[in-house]
Amino acid sequence: MISFVVKRALAAFAVLLFATAAFAQDFPKHPITMIVPFAAGGTSDVIARTVAEQMGVALGQSIVIENVAGAGGSTALARASRAEPDGYTIAIGNAGTNAATYTIYPKLPFTPESFAPIGMVAKTFGIIALRKDFPAKDLKEFIAYAKANPGKINLGHAGVGSSNYLICKSFVTAAGIDATLVGYRGASPALTDAIGSQIDGVCDAAASVSQSINEKLVKGLVVGSTVRLATLPDLPTSAEAGLPEFEAQGWNGLFAPKGTPPTIIARLNAAARAAVETDAVKKRFAELSTVAPDPDEHTPEVLQKLVTRDVEKYRKMLADEGKQ
């Protein structure tokens, strides 16, 4: 016979489940904030704005972008981790902000477990681009120049811990060169300095640098992909350029604070999935040389596996960074 206490506990649990389900069904009642860990104009920002617009359509509420730059994205993720777990504050992240950062900044006020994955929304491709007057016409000449001038070449990125920083690290490691990596508060200001020849080049994603390459404001050197990009047909892959070890294919995913109800996560996931399948997002992604996830890659579980994999991957690659 079930005791009175157990009956009350079961009844309370049933009420809680009902309230949670009702809340999810009613969600969202007002605009949602999507935190972008970098300055406006960079890869994560462009992807976030593209996806957020169509997610808002699917949810029937607007999604407001909030750019929170600093510390390679960890400033933004700290803010996101402290937000109410009600679905009204979410963040876009990547392998830098949500995996490598734990090695680079070992005393962060959050951990991978501080976030509930919503789903992957984009796959990106890393590019090395140089100022248009740099004295090297291809990758072979660039590496020769860098080796003859150790430490003198400077490459900009979106801040230590960003995905662009990881592109830089992967590139200089594969090329075996000594280059100075210069951190900015986002990809856009780094690219601006490369265009103005204030730095020698940038490590960036196709989403934010391809237009500048096509307009000949900077010159593309190599893409860390196995296939050429449709928007940059003349840019060689790393294998074609003679450096197959350089791989720079990344991802962007959405995260909510830990404790966000699964029903809310499911609602946001469905909206994100619907967004990347719209013609508007497909068209914009094509222009950005960005790829939407495959049908079986949309789930929170897939994003969680990517985070777990990349935390370990960059722990090994960046072990020395955490000792600084």
List the keywords:
Tripartite tricarboxylate transporter substrate binding protein BugD; single chain; D-Maltodextrin-Binding Protein, domain 2; about 325 residues; 9-stranded mixed sheet
How many strands, what sense, and barrel or not for the largest sheet? 9 strands, mixed
The CATH homologous superfamily of the largest domain: Bordetella uptake gene, domain 1
| Rounded Rg | 21 Å
State the secondary-structure class.
alpha/beta
Give your account of this protein's structure:
The chain has 324 residues and is of the alpha/beta class. It has two domains: 168 residues, D-Maltodextrin-Binding Protein, domain 2, CATH 3.40.190.150; 125 residues, Periplasmic binding protein-like II (D-Maltodextrin-Binding Protein, domain 2, 3-Layer(aba) Sandwich), CATH 3.40.190. It contains twelve helices and nine strands. Strands 1, 2, 3, 4, 5, 6, 7, 8 and 9 form a nine-stranded mixed β-sheet that branches. Helix 2 packs across helix 10, helix 2 runs antiparallel to helix 11 and helix 4 packs across helix 6. It is globular. About 3% of the residues have low confidence.
